[in-house]
Structure formats: structure tokens, C-alpha cells
Amino acid sequence: MSWLPTLQTNTPEQGYELAIKLSRMAVKKTQPDDETRSSLRHDYANNADSLTMASHVVATNFQTVAQANNYWRD
Amino acid sequence: MSWLPTLQTNTPEQGYELAIKLSRMAVKKTQPDDETRSSLRHDYANNADSLTMASHVVATNFQTVAQANNYWRD
Amino acid sequence: MSWLPTLQTNTPEQGYELAIKLSRMAVKKTQPDDETRSSLRHDYANNADSLTMASHVVATNFQTVAQANNYWRD
Amino acid sequence: MSWLPTLQTNTPEQGYELAIKLSRMAVKKTQPDDETRSSLRHDYANNADSLTMASHVVATNFQTVAQANNYWRD
Amino acid sequence: MSWLPTLQTNTPEQGYELAIKLSRMAVKKTQPDDETRSSLRHDYANNADSLTMASHVVATNFQTVAQANNYWRD
Amino acid sequence: MSWLPTLQTNTPEQGYELAIKLSRMAVKKTQPDDETRSSLRHDYANNADSLTMASHVVATNFQTVAQANNYWRD
User: Fold this and answer.
1) pLDDT of A6
2) F54 and E26 in contact by Cβ < 8 A?
3) Which residue, A32, B25, E16, E36, shows the most beta carbons closer than 10 Å to its own?
């Protein structure tokens, strides 16, 4: 099964989770080694600017997911 | 209850507050420890570029929220 | 009264001013102390990259405001 | 007269020039002193990353201007 | 044959792969030497912020691809 | 003749090339000296983060060009 079968979600919160998943997947595709990513995670989880940068990526992906779901207006 | 039940808000100002909430939630999901986030907050709240970066994330999320609300034009 | 009663403005220039206001408000919400912000201002107002970063945030907010006003085409 | 009477331009090239103007105006509003800006200009005009950052801001503003002009398709 | 014959893809996952391809192509056009890119890859694949930056570019391109495919809603 | 007569291109690949052109033009307008740009090019073409930043600008401009061409769907 695909890791990304659809951009549709039932709720905004699920859409936000999908945005996080999309953000992490690009990292995983560039650095496939789980252990390396895990150690890097410690770095950026304790650095304010790194966290802000990560939040920016989520925000960008959330734009896409929200639009795909017509902002869950329907 | 969901932390994000809807992207709809009554006013632009509430929409802006929601954009801030969205920006912080991504940080919280990456660094769930309240104390760590609190200490990091001190770092970036006193650094001009960090504040600008944070404002950029809010701006990105505000785009999403504003569009979800049809810019509160109705 | 709300600091953000509407995204509608009469002219593009007023829309640009609103974009600046939106950009600064996120900073203010993160660093509410006026004196601290004032001293930080000196830092980034004299650093080329800081100014470019600030301009990027304004550009992002101006996208939102311009769209809210249908680009003042009407 | 306003420095930004309209987002409409006759040609894409004029639209690009307007995007540059919008990008610089945010800098000017933050650092109004001409001489300071002039000396900072020397800094970033000789730094590859600074130039890339500046180009990113222009790209963001060009999105707005291009959309305002319906991509000069008409 | 073109490396980019179309922005249409059958599935969201293929769209995401295309977004990665678009992100890497700009790098390739700036640094065409395979060996140099390969050695740089090692650098950024082991740096948290570099990976986040790369993920941001993918997110930006994924916005384009997703919109081109009408979010695979049809 | 204008360096940017239109945003319309026949193919996605040509659109991508135009996005690169738009990205470089902003740099050229800020640093018009060919020799300086050429020497800076060496800097950023050998730095992973600089290349990622450049790719981000291309992605932003490609959003504009792709939308101007209705994603080459027609």
C-alpha cells in the first residue's frame, strides 16, 4: 500500500498530521538511515531555530492538504 | 476534543490567533517536552532573526486560515 | 477594538502597510516586551540578511492581503 | 502620489520590476536611512546566499503581481 | 525525451516523487558535476537543518504538482 | 526586446527553464557585475545549503509559471 494513498482527510487535525508526515517523508527520502535521522532529531529538537524551520515546512504542506480538502468547509 | 476542530473563525483576529496556534503545534509535536520548549522560547524571543523566522511561519499559516475563511469577506 | 478588524483596505499601499502590521504582530506576540523589541530592532535594521528576511515575511503577508482585496482590481 | 497606486502593469517585465520595488520597500520601511541601506547593499551584493535570499523575496512578490495581472494572459 | 513531459501523475505518491525530482533538478542545473553533488549530498544528509531546508523545497514543489493534479480529487 | 515577453511556455520543461531565468534575474538586478556573479557562483555551487536555497527560489518561481500556463493541462 502507498504511504500516501490520498490527500483527503476527515478532519483538519488529521490533515495537520498528514502535513507532518509529508514533511518528514522528504527527510526520510534524503536520509534513509533510521539511526542517523534519530540522532539528528535530537539536534534539532533542542534548537529553537531548527524547530521554527520544521514548523515552516509543516505550514507549507498544510496549505496543500487544507486546499485539497477544500478547508474542510463542506 | 480536537485541538483543531475547524479552520473557520468569526473574525480575522481570531484567524490570526489560530495561525499562531498552528505554528506552535508543529513545534510541540517535534519537541513535546514543555520545559525544553520553555527554555528555547527564551532563546528565540531575544534574537531578532529567530523572531522574524517565527513571524514567517505565522504568515504562512495565516494564508491558509484566511483562505479557509474566504478572507472574512462574506 | 480589534487590531485586525478586516483584511480589506482601500488601496494597495494601505494593504502593504497592513502586511507590515501583520508581520510585526507575530513578533510582538512572541516578544511582548517593547524595550526588548526596540533593542532587537537595532540589530536587524543594520544587517542585510535580517532585512531581507523581514521583507520576505512582509511579502508573504502581502500575498494574503492582496488576495483578500482581489488585488484591488475592482 | 502613492508609491504603489496599482498592482496592474502592462507587461510581465514591468510586473517583475514592481516585484523588486515591493521587495525593497519593506527594507526601506525597516531601515529608512539611505546611507545605511547603501552600505548594507555592498554586503549582500557580494554574498551568494544573500543574493539568493533576495531573489526569493522577489519571487514571492512576483507571485502576487503576476496573479494580480492574471498572468498577463488576457 | 523531456525530463519533465507533464506535471500530471496517477497518484499522490507519484506526485510527491515528481516534487522531489523538481527539487533536485534545480540543484543539478546549478551544479552539473555528478561527483560534486554526490559529495555535497553526504554533507546535507547528515545535518538536521539542511534536511529541513530540503524538505521545504519539496513541499513547495509538491504544492505545484498537487494543484496541477487537482489534488487527485477526481 | 523584453527579457520576459510572456510567462507562457509550450512545455513544462520550458516553464522550468523560465523559472530558473526568473530566479537568476533578481540576482543580476542586485549584482549587475558579471565577473562578481561568476565568482560567487563558484561559492554557492559547492555548498549544499546554498544549492538548496537556490532550488527553493526556482520552486517558488515555478509555481508562478506553472499557474500562468494552467499547469499545461490544456
Assistant:
1) 98
2) yes
3) E16
Scan residues 24-63 of C and list those with Cβ closer than 8 Å to B.
24-27, 29-31, 36, 40-41, 43-44, 47, 49-50, 53-54, 56-57, 60-61, 63
Domain locations in chain F?
12-69
Q: What is the pLDDT of residues F7-66, one digit of tens each?
A: 999 999 999 999 999 999 999 999 999 999 999 998 899 999 999 999 999 999 999 999
A37, HSE (Cβ side, Cα atoms, 13 Å): 13
CB C18 within 8 A of CB C68: no
D41-73: pLDDT as tens digits: 988 999 999 999 999 999 999 999 999 999 999
> What is residue F7's three-state secondary structure?
coil
- Interchain proximity E13–A4, CB inside 8 Å: yes
Q: Does D64 touch chain F (CB under 8 A)?
A: no
Q: With an 8 Å Cβ cutoff, are F55 and E27 in contact?
A: yes
> Are the C-beta atoms of C25 and B16 separated by less than 8 Å?
yes
Best mutation site among D55, D67, D70 for testing chain F: the one with the most F CBs within 10 Å?
D55
Single-letter residue type at F40: L
